[in-house]
Design a protein that fits this description.
This protein is 39% helix and 20% strand. The chain is α+β, with helices and mostly antiparallel strands. It is elongated.
């Protein structure tokens, strides 16, 4: 590479690193991983790089890393552990089935079985999530999961795409690793209120164990 190309390559790597940091921060604070990524890339490109960087290539590559390798793929970009020379020089074509899919990777999670109080035959599930970052400790509940058959298991994680288009990525090692606040919230609002439930043990809300999840997906 000549000096001009080398400088452009350095700026290209810097842009990818900035995008990776955005994704890691989103994950840490419990937001969808790609939230605001495109806007940040465009803003940084205009402010620091005179709009010289191929933003579409950066965005698609970061999305590819996340989709194919998960959190580890983004950490590789952040730590400059990938040779990006070919990516810089050539066109990058990548499509996923749903180009609008975003990712949410909680710090801790559980799947709750929540029976229908009006019809005991109907069982639905929701993901209870906990995210922690510095002074932020938050909990969220996913949309309703009609059946765990809609959840895919791959290696060390489970994945579910909600009707809203958000993909939940649930790493096994993060299961039930809740903060004190999240544990208390779960107990207070999803366990205690149903201790006197008279419809029978099988109709009470339940935190599924890992073997129960695996057997149902």
């Amino acid at each position: 590479m000549n000096e001009e190309k080398k400088e452009m390559f350095r700026e290209f790597k810097h842009m990818l690193g900035s995008g990776a940091l955005r994704i890691l921060l989103n994950i840490k604070i419990g937001e969808p991983a790609l939230d605001g990524l495109a806007e940040q890339l465009h803003r940084d490109n205009a402010q620091f790089h005179n709009n010289n960087i191929n933003i579409a290539k950066c965005y698609k590559f970061l999305k590819y890393q996340l989709d194919k390798f998960g959190l580890a793929g983004i950490q590789q970009v952040d730590r400059d552990e990938i040779d990006l020379t070919r990516l810089f020089r050539f066109k990058f074509d990548f499509r996923i089935e749903d180009s609008e899919v975003n990712f949410l990777i909680p710090d801790a999670w559980a799947i709750l079985r929540l029976p229908n109080t009006e019809d005991q035959r109907i069982i639905r599930y929701r993901i209870f999530m906990n995210s922690t970052h510095k002074d932020v400790d938050s909990v969220k509940l996913s949309e309703t999961i009609m059946s765990l058959h809609h959840i895919a298991q791959s290696q060390d994680k489970f994945e579910w795409i909600a009707p809203s288009g958000i993909k939940f990525v649930l790493y096994e090692e993060k299961m039930l690793g809740f903060s004190e606040y999240a544990t208390d919230y779960l107990e207070r609002y999803y366990v205690q209120p149903y201790l006197q439930w008279t419809k029978g043990q099988n109709t009470r809300p339940k935190i599924l164990t890992l073997p129960e999840i695996i057997s149902k997906v």
